[in-house]
């Protein structure tokens, strides 16, 4: 029996997925400082200006991307997402950030971020991995055609750097920042904020730091508060018994793909199931692990091909293929075009 083929849109659109505005709450102030009518611009994309009055308010993820894209165009700030999120600290990130800040160690806190950020941000998947002496905190937007995705990523990485500085404490520095989008005309604000080398046209969106910080205890962490918050978030995020939400699976697969640990066994383990039970639940939902993995790979491939000039070899490696030929064969099955032709037809202008 052949592998099911995803439709050409990959995963369903995320237009109904939401994100807390806490991370972007400074955006209206930035627009006003540039002489813009922030309320009018927000209304132009179909949002209420009052949505930015409190960090716990939520808006559609796609609308945030649309607003960031329009704001970048109108202000001429190609790094607007970064600038809007430079002031954002832990206090603006809600319950998940309090859990992170009260975890025993930096590594434990980042594991909580990976597990629970989807409760605040449904449009992306964070991940944490270790590569030798380096640790990587990454952020992957799930929708391949999302307008303004690069601005959201710029902001997310700015926040990631702020979060790490807060929980790691004295002596923390980043080693590198990787961004899977083309460089803006002026990248000086990135270098200033991250105080580390910034590499555009990369194969991932991530901040890189010394892995030794993962073992560092977080100053002021409260064990009782951590346990309470973890219990609250587990209850909120619990999957209904007897079923597995397809969108949640795709988010988990995207995280596993980013960390190079993608397999059906690993996916099943993420949901506390064995391989056979996991496959049965997927079958009851009308899908298979292979179909979902193909859809996630297709989405990730289109994001890299559209937004950056990363080589096809690096894309293939990032998606877990043995070589470019295997990747190109799969991509043609999904899209009807080779990766090179698709990039010429759909990629952003260099």
From TrEMBL:
<dbReference type="InterPro" id="IPR032687">
    <property type="entry name" value="AraC-type_N"/>
</dbReference>
<dbReference type="Pfam" id="PF12833">
    <property type="entry name" value="HTH_18"/>
</dbReference>
<dbReference type="InterPro" id="IPR009057">
    <property type="entry name" value="Homeodomain-like_sf"/>
</dbReference>
<protein>
    <submittedName>
        <fullName>AraC family transcriptional regulator</fullName>
    </submittedName>
</protein>
<keyword id="KW-0805">Transcription regulation</keyword>
<feature type="domain" description="HTH araC/xylS-type">
    <location>
        <begin position="247"/>
        <end position="345"/>
    </location>
</feature>
<dbReference type="Pfam" id="PF12625">
    <property type="entry name" value="Arabinose_bd"/>
</dbReference>
<keyword id="KW-0238">DNA-binding</keyword>
<dbReference type="GO" id="GO:0003700">
    <property type="term" value="F:DNA-binding transcription factor activity"/>
</dbReference>
<keyword id="KW-0804">Transcription</keyword>
<dbReference type="GO" id="GO:0005829">
    <property type="term" value="C:cytosol"/>
</dbReference>
<dbReference type="GO" id="GO:0000976">
    <property type="term" value="F:transcription cis-regulatory region binding"/>
</dbReference>
<dbReference type="InterPro" id="IPR018060">
    <property type="entry name" value="HTH_AraC"/>
</dbReference>
């Amino acid at each position: 029996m052949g592998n099911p083929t995803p439709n050409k849109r990959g995963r369903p659109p995320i237009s109904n997925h939401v994100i807390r505005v806490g991370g972007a709450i400074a955006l209206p102030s930035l627009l006003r400082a540039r002489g813009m009518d922030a309320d009018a611009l927000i209304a132009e994309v179909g949002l209420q200006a009052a949505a930015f009055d409190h960090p716990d308010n939520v808006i559609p993820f796609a609308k945030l991307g649309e607003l960031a894209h329009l704001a970048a165009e109108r202000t001429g700030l190609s790094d607007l997402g970064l600038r809007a999120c430079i002031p954002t600290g832990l206090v603006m990130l809600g319950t998940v950030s309090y859990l992170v800040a009260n975890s025993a160690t930096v590594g434990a806190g980042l594991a909580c971020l990976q597990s629970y950020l989807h409760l605040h941000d449904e449009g992306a998947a964070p991940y944490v991995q270790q590569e030798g002496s380096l640790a990587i905190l990454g952020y992957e937007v799930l929708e391949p055609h999302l307008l303004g995705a690069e601005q959201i990523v710029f902001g997310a990485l700015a926040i990631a750097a702020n979060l790490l500085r807060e929980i790691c404490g004295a002596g923390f520095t980043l080693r590198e920042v990787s961004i899977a989008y083309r460089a803006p005309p002026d990248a000086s604000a990135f270098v200033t904020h991250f105080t580390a080398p910034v590499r555009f046209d990369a194969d991932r969106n991530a901040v890189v730091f010394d892995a030794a910080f993962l073992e560092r205890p977080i100053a002021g962490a409260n064990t009782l508060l951590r346990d309470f918050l973890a219990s609250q978030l587990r209850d909120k995020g619990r999957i209904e018994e007897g079923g597995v939400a397809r969108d949640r699976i795709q988010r988990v697969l995207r995280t596993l793909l980013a960390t190079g640990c993608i397999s059906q066994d690993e996916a099943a383990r993420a949901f506390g199931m064995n391989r056979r039970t996991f496959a049965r639940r997927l079958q009851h939902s009308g899908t298979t692990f292979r179909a979902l993995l193909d859809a996630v790979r297709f989405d990730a491939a289109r994001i890299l091909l559209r937004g950056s000039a990363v080589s096809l070899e690096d894309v293939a490696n990032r998606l877990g293929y043995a070589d470019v030929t295997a990747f190109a064969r799969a991509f043609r099955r999904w899209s009807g075009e080779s990766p090179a032709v698709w990039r010429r037809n759909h990629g952003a202008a260099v």
